[in-house]
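step=encode ok
step=design start
structure_in=
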């Protein structure tokens, strides 16, 4: 299986993840754990408490990567709490998620520490070119959620992807993930099927040519499923996920 576990307060599974890590017997330094701070816990004091709750639920002394899940509200206060937790050794790396160029330029200039990572939607149909240029200039890694386009069959059936799958004796998903890997994007495709998990990691025994990479770049539409800049997004998210409902 994968050794990179991506969880979040708003996934409501940190406790289960922590138990699974404990039960696995795998040494802590061989597992990478990412978690994320939810909107309800922004601001310095609330974020500080939320970080400690995450550590308790995960049964960990530190979290490898901790992200601001959604870029709205008192992001600067939350970030200061994350910086303090990083200095205290509770968080190894800190980053953000779902930040568009507009939101990046709104918040990041207020930060003392530049985020290590921006986790955003990314796939061949939505290649985030303006954002990638912005991040590259500051040596920030782009991490892709939904790297397979959330199972979009139109993407999987693109002629160039089908042709490359035949050429390299791979499936469409492996071609997509290999493209993203060669683009320098960090990917972690989701699956609950063991065969698919094994398939998704079998992308390191071939390399796409520069011509093939250009053909795949040409699939970019510049549009994704989620628009963090749209009005009312933060209100919709707060309504959808109440992480303190059981407090």
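sequence_out=
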């Amino acid at each position: 299986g994968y050794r990179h576990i991506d969880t979040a307060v708003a996934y409501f599974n940190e406790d289960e993840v922590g138990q699974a890590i404990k039960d696995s017997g795998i040494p802590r330094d061989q597992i990478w754990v990412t978690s994320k701070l939810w909107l309800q816990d922004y601001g310095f004091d609330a974020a500080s408490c939320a970080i400690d709750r995450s550590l308790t639920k995960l049964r960990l002394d530190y979290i490898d990567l901790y992200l601001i899940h959604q870029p709205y509200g008192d992001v600067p206060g939350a970030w200061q709490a994350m910086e303090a937790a990083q200095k205290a050794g509770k968080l190894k790396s800190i980053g953000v998620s779902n930040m568009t160029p507009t939101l990046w330029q709104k918040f990041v200039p207020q930060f003392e520490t530049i985020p290590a990572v921006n986790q955003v939607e990314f796939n061949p149909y939505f290649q985030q070119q303006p954002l990638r240029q912005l991040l590259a200039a500051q040596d920030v890694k782009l991490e892709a959620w939904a790297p397979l386009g959330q199972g979009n069959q139109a993407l999987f059936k693109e002629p160039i992807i089908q042709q490359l799958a035949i050429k390299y004796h791979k499936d469409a998903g492996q071609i997509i993930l290999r493209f993203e890997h060669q683009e320098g994007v960090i990917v972690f495709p989701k699956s609950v099927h063991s065969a698919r998990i094994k398939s998704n990691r079998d992308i390191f025994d071939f390399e796409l040519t520069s011509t093939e990479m250009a053909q795949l770049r040409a699939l970019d539409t510049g549009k994704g499923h989620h628009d963090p800049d749209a009005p009312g997004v933060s209100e919709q998210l707060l309504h959808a996920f109440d992480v303190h409902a059981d407090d």
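step=design ok
step=annotate ok -> Residues 43 and 77 are 4 Å apart (CA to CA).
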